[in-house]
Amino acid sequence: MEPDSEKFWYVHSCDLDVGIQVKIGTLDGRREKPNYEDLLKDPLLKHSGLHQASCSDLYVTCQVYSDGRELTLPVRTSYKSFSTRWNWNEWLTLPLKFSDLPRNAVLALTIYDCYGPRRSEPIGGTTISFFGKHAVFRQGLHDLRVWPNCVAHPEHTPGKVQDPGKDQMQRLAKLAKKHRNGQMMKVDWLDRLTFREIELINENEKRSSNSMYLMVEFPRVEHEGVIYSVVWWERGDQNEYEHHTSGNIVRIPDPEIALENLQEAKHHRLARSLRSGVTDKDLKPNLSIRDTLHVIIEYPPTKQLTSDEQDMVWKYRFYLSNQKKALTKFLKGVNWKLSGEAKQAIELLGKWAPPDVDDALELLGPGFTQPEVRRYAVERLSLVASDEDLLLYLLQLVQALKYEALDSVDMSLCDVSHYSSSDTSGGTGQAEDTTSEHSAQQDKMGSSAGSTGANLTRSTSSSLEESEAATIQRSPSSSLLAEPDSSDPSAAATDSVLLPELAEVETELDLASFLIQRACRNPTLANYLYWYLLVECEDQEVGLKHDAKVREMYLWVLRRFKLALQQGSREARLTRMSLTRQHHFMDQLVSLVKTVSKESGNRMKRIEKLQGLLADPENANYNFATFDQLALPLDPEIQVTGIIPERATLFKSALEPCRLTFKAAMGGEYVAIFKHGDDLRQDQLIIQIITLMDRLLRRENLDLRLTPYKVLATSSKHGFVQFIESHAVADVLRTEGGIQNFFRRHAPSETGPYGIAPEVMDTYIRSCAGYCVITYLLGIGDRHLDNLLLTRNGNLFHIDFGYILGRDPKPLPPPMKLSREMVEGMGGAHSEFHLEFRKLCYTAFHQLRRHSNLILNLFSLMVDANVPDIALTQHHQAEHNSCVAPCSCKMVWTQASDE
Hints:
about 900 residues, alpha+beta, Immunoglobulin-like, Serine Threonine Protein Phosphatase 5, Tetratricopeptide repeat, 4 domains, 33 helices, 22 strands
């Protein structure tokens, strides 16, 4: 069976705007001659085709019926002279397209003979439905029984007649169809003999039967060498049709199939016993085995090793211990349930060549649950990854917390449960002195909101505190570690004793401790870690008990993070205060947007309402126009002091996102889009991967002028998107007539190519190449000219990543998202700029493919995140890394060609 035989390739009929063709083949069978009595009654029969010695000049008409009514005018075959056999071999084009066919459409074929001047008589008729019982368009050859001396009609002349015991033609046709569809094993020599015998049986059936048979052929839909089935579907139709969920193969239950194979288990234990370690240390592979080991090491992280490959890696583990890329392959083959084998693996782990960051990230995935392995991976990250690199992986590292041993995470947090009351106290000692002004401002805003906004929806922060109070269970010793009274003179001494305990917990280097430790030193890391954790902690419909435990774990980590900030340095305490103010700002902004969305009237009235609420602090319970310096959650390096009300507006879309212009503390403005009612986590993931790819390419001295704008999901229902001043390519074509006209208007140059500034043209070529390669690798779908944006400097970039990893609302989308208008902007397909574009695509593709393991490991860590397309792919496919398959096959399928 071919590798892709189990795949069902199909296309919906409503998406095929192509005319239907039917091929009229041969007419077989005996036609009764008129007797002398008939000739006496009708002398014209002597001049008709019935009385001819040779084959008469027949013709066939085709007509489409639905519900017993005619849908089209008849279409007939052209004139053809026959000698010994009726064989038209002619394709007829029906006046209907695939998209116009109803579900119950029937093809009616009538055979006529010339009877006299301007007169013809029907020889017979037959019908066949266009779609089978599973709503699949028929393909290939079909023998239809002809009902004599009548015109074809769907109710009286069925071409397929069930006649068990006599008619073997239909039974053999069904078997041939199964063979063609790959449901039978194909043996060339046997197939040739079988089909020859089938032809003989069909000929004998037709010869022995008193009926006539008309052979017709339906077209096949083929694209790039793959045959597609046409499935009937009408847009907006929700009817369900029965279909088989399993094949016709009989399943025989085997009660021993799930049991352990005792022979294999014994062989495994003997091969990996402690005794083998003595001889394996000096074991060296020969040339053939060394090549096989090299191939195994180069496997992508998504490929599962066979048992033989695992045994080979284990056998030569000491030889491979100096190759850092072999570590993950070695650990994948360890049976951690066997204590002796696990002990050997842990001992060898410390002697192995230290892996790179991409392999360390793989060790934090769901396939490695051993605590020692995960702590080793965290240790490698702490030594190799800088804060700048950590920002690129932080989203995945937060998701990797789900694969930590939940019990061990909870135990690591019990030591800090005594800080529960200090979490909301506003700090003690020096922290209270340094942030008193901010606390007073926060209390003022909180009291104002409480007095006039009692009917508002509860904020996320309040619900979070209630959730923490409900889920956190104190240990019996927590009463002894309760926070001392502020009036007690020994309070400071007690705090000084407890702080080292917290430090000891953080130096254990579990993943949660590592993230908290690094975030306390870097405000930018702290900002994003806070919002990533907060999104995971928000209330969701929990369907599984494990999900509830994971959410409880995230609550613990977030609480510990806030306590670590509050008990940390002065900068950490200021970061804690800034995050609290950010949270309050987001709650008020969400409340304001909800109020605006409830405003009746058109969009202009809602814009006026938005600007009015932003300008008047009394109406919105918060002074959005002017507030104390605050780090913007979207980009914490930007300090903002207010929103310009008159610059706020709403976009023309279903959700009407807000465009907000912030006043920067250092001068200037920062424009961001706030979306409410939209889940931005998928866009956030794709932008993070694009940012990573841009960083990787720049390290190779390849600047493709990408525009990785910032996206932050502050909840599953709202978030921020950085606004880049640009124009949709569709608008550019509509107003300017072409991309080059747009550049000539905004960046003219008399000496530049096509009258355009050279740097603008270079930026356009590079950005086109970068995004073409990236969208191809990530399988970005739903690409059209409205979600391609163009800046005046020549930067082209994509937005709206609603379809990723190969999903697309349109059937058969092109793999490379490159339109004709984009090529014309380069000067055409034969210009030197298009040649440069192709070279850049080639270089970028090979550079990114060298980092395929890093990108695939980052996606693997996101398989259990609530990202729509990843969750959808996981739902339909059983393998844990199935969502990474579309990206994996494009990045590593020809990796050996680089060598």
